[in-house]
Amino acid sequence: MTQSEVNSVSFRILACAIEVNRVLGPGLLESIYHKSLICEMQSQGLEVKSKVAVPVYYKGNPLGDNLCLDLLVNDCVIVELKSVDALNPVFQAQLLTYMKLTQIPKGLLINFNSTNISKNTIRLVNEFFSRLNQE
Known about the structure:
Layout: H1 3-24, H2 30-43, E1 48-58, E2 61-73, E3 77-82, H3 89-102, E4 106-111, E5 121-125, H4 127-130
Parallel strand pairs: 3-4
Antiparallel strand pairs: 1-2, 2-3, 4-5
Helix pairs in contact: 1-2
């Protein structure tokens, strides 16, 4: 996997989110956008895993509680969905933590409670992204 391939997947996810928002508009429950985005991404040939459990360890000891990712796409991009008035900084911190724990290089935080998905999506990369080849 290269940075270009990860960015391509990210671009395709965003295109799917724009389409879902165009069809449904803002103001619905997150769960509706979740299901709709899965349908749209799968129709575009993306591999989507929903509600992915992520075990949490403290100093090597399993805590027994799992975190739950909204979506994992093509095993390289985590997508966290919101339908809120404004994105809170804690949502970004949550996504960065998920990315670190899973060693996934890129994450998208998408707020569907908007008329412009592109402006209400936060794109994040981490050290795992920087270790990928650029081409």
